[in-house]
Amino acid sequence: MVDPASSFLGKMLLEEITPVVMVLRTPLVEEACLKNGLTFVQMLQPFCVFNNIDVPVRTVSDQPYRLHKFKLRLFYASDIKQPNVEAAEEHLKEVVTRAAEKDLSDLSSDPPQLDDLLAMNSESLPLWFKIFNKELIRTLSFSEHEAFDHPVACLLVVSSKDELPINKFVDLFNTNQLPSLLNDGVMDPKILKHYLLIHDNQDGSSEKATNVLTEMRSTFGMNDCRLLCINSAKDGSEERIGSLWTPYKTDTSPSQDLGCLLNVNDVSEIKDLMQDLSSKHIIPHMEQKIRVLNQQVSATRKGFRNQIKNLWWRKGKEDTPDAPNGPMYTFSSIESQIRVLGDYAFMLRDYELALSSCRLLSTDYKIDKSWKRYAGVQEMMALTYFMLDQSRKEAENCMENAFSTYLKIGSTGQRNATRCGLWWVEMLKAKEQYKEAAGVYFRISSEEPSLHAAVMLEQASFCYLFSNPPMLRKYGFHLVLAGNRYYMSDQKKHSIRTYRSALSVYKGNSWSFIKDHVHFHVGKWYAFLGIFDVAVKHMLEILACSHQSVMTQELFLKDFLQNVEKMGKTYEVFRLQLPIINMSSLKVVFEDYRTYASTAAANVRESLWQSLEEDMVHSLPMSRSNWLEPEAKSSKKDKDSNVCVVGEAIKMDIEFKNPLQIPISISGVSLICQLFPRSEVAECELTEKDAHAHPYESASGEKNDAEELRKLTSNWELNSGVSSFALSEVVFSMRGGETTVVQLTVTPKVEGVLKIIGVRWKLSDSVVSYYNFDSDHVKKKNIKGRKKSSQSSSKNLKFVVIKSVPKLEGCIRHLPGKIYAGDTRRLVLELKNQSDISVKNMKMKISHPRFVIPGSLEDLNVEFPSCLEKNSNSEHNDVQPSSSKQPKSSLFSFEDAAIQGGTTFFWPLWLRAAVPGRISLYLSLYYEMENLSSEMKYRIFRIHYDLEVLQSLDLSFQISPCPSKLQEFLVRMDVVNRTSSENLQLHQLSSVGHQWEISPLQPNEAICPLQLLKAGQALSCFFKLKNCRKSSMFEGSISFHSLLQGHDVRLGPQGSDKALFDVSGSALADFHHHERLQQGKSIQGQQGTVDFILISQLPKNRADHGLEGQSDLPQLFSHHSCHHSIASTSPVWWLMNGPRTVHHNFTVSFCEIRLGMAIHNSSKEAISIRMSTLDVTSSDGQLSDVAAAAQDPISSENQGGWHNVSLGNDIKVTSDALGTQFGKSSSDVMAPFVWAASSSTRVELEPMSTTEVPLKICVFAPGTYNLSNYTMHWEVKLLGVPLSAGDRTRQLSGRSPGHPYYITVLQSP
């Protein structure tokens, strides 16, 4: 802590708590002084402050001390009274208003920055704060309960021109002219008097004055009289000394010459007068007064006896009710004398005596319930503690007691509480307790009117700023409170100043509501002052107030537009936030070597197109330089730029968002661009580099924004008259909260380098906004210090414009948006070449060949769907049509086709909706330019369509071996119509491939005679499937046509003449190829599977249109079901041949029955087969399936053909007698039948060969028997050929149980 006397509070106390001298003068004295533009008191004031005085002082102690600084306060007797409340308030308002007028020039400057505020200290506060505080304290001058404002001496002044000067001196000290403090008995009227005679040298010699002085001394005493001669200067020849009075006369006009008649001798006399008055009269008088009072106090109050006596005398006063002002004390009362003693001691720097006196007095006032005097004593004790630099806690407690007591009194003590608070604040600030000081300021503000409260709150905010650490949030909040109070007091300039200072705290944080409040009111107050440009700047900050209510948003926008209108011109702003541009969604669509058929195709991810097109070019360019001719003079910037073509528009999708909940209108939306020759690229790069290296530095960024705005405005003005490119312009309206994507275009007309700089739009036809794209991307990356990464083509806004090259345009005709699954159609790819140059070497790749495949040129000239029907002249269905060919590869070439300039090209495509769902079709078409001198050698045309496929038919098949014939199967087809309203006619079912032949169960049986399958209806059909493969097929190569060529079954009434469709030599075959690939297996694999194709059509009487009103109805539906298995893991098939019923006379002998076992090898390798028969009896003498299974437990996975179904008891006895005969439970009973001949037979079978093994059984009793008690062992012979990778998991041996075969033996008559 600094020395208390050096602190602001110490200096204030040394100025404000000093002896008061009452001045009584005659009118002629004032007349002589006013010749210098000064009153008598003003003339003496510069000489009442003694900074180098050296006066010894001895109060009550024997040890004297010296005063080095001293001050007198001079007041006319008429001014020694408590100031008028209204006049005091008006004076304080004038102080604040003058401060606002001085700060008017700062209103148009930049608001203070936070760093500058943090660098401030308490010494840099505005000076008018101190002035206001002093003036506020002075409003309490000359109060009754305090003695430091009571006059210590009286200076009586008479002019030498007055008649009877001695009588004038006597008349001056008349009770009528004395202040009320003397007349009312508050202070002792016997005060020190000093008599002064004024002589004006302008009126003649001082001889008369000297005679009067002699008479005065004889009347009033030798030492108490003095003569002062003034106005000795002559005709302005003397040195000007008017600057001495300038600080003391605030209402001086610049032309007024203060002290014009006073010369150096006059000033010297005045100075000697005041010094003698203070050192030889006032200070000795106060010393004497202190000693006298101290003796009286010591005699009556000090000592134990006097204290007990005082307490006894005051006994009972505690029970008296409180009076508003407490009891009255005259100057002769001991309490008043103690207060005078304390105040005199304080003014003479004897703080110990002052403290002891106040302590003695504090108890008395408290017992007497004289609360105002008690608070005043507590206040003086706190100040004394402060000046003694002792007991900070005691000082604060005294101030707290004084402050609370003043407030307790009521309205009469509120202003005293304010003064107490100001002393208290300065005490805390001297100890650097700024946070606590701010709290006291806030307490003061709650007791004062709005204007005074505003000043207190502003000072409190600075205390929070000076706290350690700085409390910025409280600083800003109290500034806003102060600004609001200033506004209530009609001090708008002060409101603006405080609100602008608060913005430094709220800038860049998320305190949206208070930030909006500050900006809005600052803008409104600036507009009130007529400074509309600054008002609009503040209003701009709150336009995008999405967090505010609708009513508030309307108010903000309305006031903003009104202020813009009052400016009388179109207002231009940089990066207006209404609407907001979403830079992250910024998308640039341009066509270099990649062109697009639609916006949807341009919106597809580039990685998807690249994966589709990777086989179209030998080296697909991953960088932009691949399609440009390398030039030695081309800059690195060219290589990093996009490439576009003259006459082809560059489209930019910009997302605008209305952050408000109210509608807004936007007009004149257009891009801002530059186009310059390539030769000027290097110069432009250098200019941009220099601009980035030396940015316009500003703490707030406003200078940088102003420079960017200037550049954008200049570029836009150049755009308006340029003919090198064409710009589009968009007008639109936005509802509250709406987000709109606007597409803007720029079309270059000449070669060069085109740069998109930003975008321009107009809000409500009043405000023009410019937005610079570079400032949001490139500059931010450079500021962070990161290495600049290569931008994607959608973010890099610089384009190298090359000369015009051919560009194909086109579409797929007749492609519906919605389609049923299985719908097969012929489409047409239409391509137009609008340029004069031909294109050649066209290639095409389709993303979903399962859905779309290219046709041949001949398909354009045939009728659909009859072009897919079989040739009626063909004798056999399996004859290969001439048009059949291998399936097309993924990359389709248009052979030698070329598109001449200005012509249209057509090519057929086949569409089949393979599966339900939403399908995105992508088609890329590569073509080269006929003109090899072009910078771009080839281009790729990209087409994209979204297709919604609806459900139509659900198809499923079940295949089971035929129990009666080898290599024949039963097929069950289940069909469900899943459409919502369509009825479908089933036309034909085809088995695919040369190996299988499908046919009805009965040769002339009609399958699905109704033929019409209604919506939601299900149908099951049965067919017979026969294996037609021969062993010779494996010896040579298999043609693609033979693998796809199949057999067909007509579905419908018998005798129908509808032609069947060819599934092996048309687009259906290509679709089937892709369907097999999609369903998981190659067309050359797995010979044990079969594929089916179901073809259906709409009824002929269908009169309405297709989906969504489509005029072209679907004419053909094809459903492909692939890879249906017809084989087990065993390559061996067998079938037992023989009688089913035999009659025999068992009374003669047992029955012998001959059978045959046909065995077939279906594999490509030779197989060794061993058949073993089993003779096993059950407990009742009959063969049981369960027992056989237990005897020969074979895994069901090795079973082929029909599987065994347990019947519980395989032997069915037809006679009760016989049943009883074989019902004995004896273990040695003979079995009902046995296998005859060898129990094991081995055969070797070549690939795809069949043999028959003879068998015989002996039956001993009539009945029905299951001849499945045998096993079939097989093993593949590899003949030393090593296994391939795919055969290592294949089963090479196994054992299968016998198939059930039932035979009935009857007793013959």
TrEMBL record:
Designated name of the protein: Trafficking protein particle complex subunit 8
Domain TPPC8 first Ig-like: 606-779
Sequence ranges assigned to domain TPPC8 second Ig-like in this UniProt record: 822-940
Domain TPPC8 C-terminal Ig-like: 1212-1271
InterPro entries documented for this protein: Ig_TPPC8_1st (IPR058541), Ig_TPPC8_2nd (IPR058538), Ig_TPPC8_C (IPR057651), TPR-like_helical_dom_sf (IPR011990), TRAPP_III_complex_Trs85 (IPR024420)
GO cellular component, one term: TRAPPIII protein complex
